[in-house]
Design goal:
TIM Barrel; globular; about 325 residues; alpha/beta; two-stranded antiparallel sheet; 6 helices
Length: about 325
């Protein structure tokens, strides 16, 4: 009897277990989650990629969105026997030299006979160690008078070491005084370059300061009726200058090679530092001036509007 009871109990237990597994409830389905993608961060947002001119390197540099890109085709440029040319449409090139007292005495008629059309002449410079040491280039008057007599168009540049806009204004006034009696038809350039020497005041200066100095120099030059300009080389222009602040200023780029590679529009291209020119006894820089079919180029831009920077009591620039 006991055995039969156990058998019955076991069967009932199995039946109960089977019935407990049969439910009329709708099975619960786990919800499907769609993962939220991680936003892709562009590490070069606000930058453009440009050739550095150094061994094929490319640089990512801050974009100056208010400046127009250079709209001529680099591969259509060439330099043969120190003569630059452009094979495309809408642009012709004039050939020039830029000189200082480092070129010693120059036979300007021989330079003109070689086919040089214009000259950029250093008119003065400031010492990189002594801010009070502002000088006229020792051959400025000799060079500008010789170049004009030989029929060349002339522009000038001041080698700046300004650290604030008061010094930049002093350099502009100094320059304007030097050129007031000469027929300067090309731009008057601000040429600021850091000097990496012991005791140099300009070895480590921020771009805001340099740009403010350039704007102040150009403002005063424009006020006296000249076209203002800025000379620079690629690294200084891209990484130090705040180029957006220089709209309307003629740009002269030191960019040696057979074609210009500066990204933005500019008027003058310094294509070699080591030219040999009859009438000049040492190596000299040579430049191309862009003459566009629309009448622009060569610094013949519309009137420039440059905003003067504010000045702090110690002569520093603000903004």
């Amino acid at each position: 009897m006991k055995k039969r009871f156990l058998t019955f109990f076991a069967a009932a237990l199995v039946l109960a277990l089977l019935l407990s597994g049969c439910s009329h409830d709708t099975p619960q389905v786990s919800p499907t989650f769609t993962p939220v993608p991680t936003p892709t961060v562009d590490p070069h947002e606000g930058e453009i990629q440009v050739p550095s001119g150094i061994g094929g390197e490319m640089w990512w540099v801050p974009e100056a969105p208010d400046l127009a890109p250079f709209n001529f085709i680099p591969t259509q440029f060439n330099v043969v026997d120190q003569m630059p040319s452009y094979a495309g449409e809408g642009l012709t090139l004039r050939r020039g030299v830029d000189v200082s007292d480092h070129q010693q005495q120059i036979d300007w008629q021989a330079v003109a006979d070689y086919g040089v059309d214009f000259a950029m002449i250093r008119c003065g410079w400031r010492s990189y160690s002594d801010p009070a040491n502002v000088n006229e280039d020792s051959r400025f008057r000799e060079n500008i008078e010789g170049a004009l007599a030989a029929g060349l168009d002339v522009g000038v540049y001041f080698f700046s070491q300004a650290l604030n806009i008061v010094e930049a204004a002093e350099e502009a006034v100094f320059t304007l005084h030097l050129i007031e009696d000469y027929n300067v038809t090309l731009p008057v350039f601000f040429d600021w370059e850091p000097m990496p020497y012991e005791g140099s005041r300009t070895a480590d200066v921020d771009g805001e300061t340099v740009t403010a100095c350039c704007v102040e120099f150009c403002r005063l030059v424009q006020a006296m009726g000249y076209q203002p300009g800025m000379y620079s080389y690629l690294k200084l222009a891209y990484y130090t200058y705040q180029l957006n602040e220089l709209q309307g200023v003629s740009l002269w780029m030191g960019d040696p090679g057979t074609k210009p590679i500066f990204y933005y529009d500019h008027d003058f291209w310094q294509y070699t530092y080591t030219a040999t020119v009859p009438g000049i006894s040492v190596e000299v820089d040579m430049d191309a001036m862009y003459v566009r079919s629309d009448g622009g180029g060569g610094g013949a831009a519309p009137a420039v509007t440059v905003t003067p920077a504010a000045v702090t009591p110690d002569g520093g620039a603000v903004g």
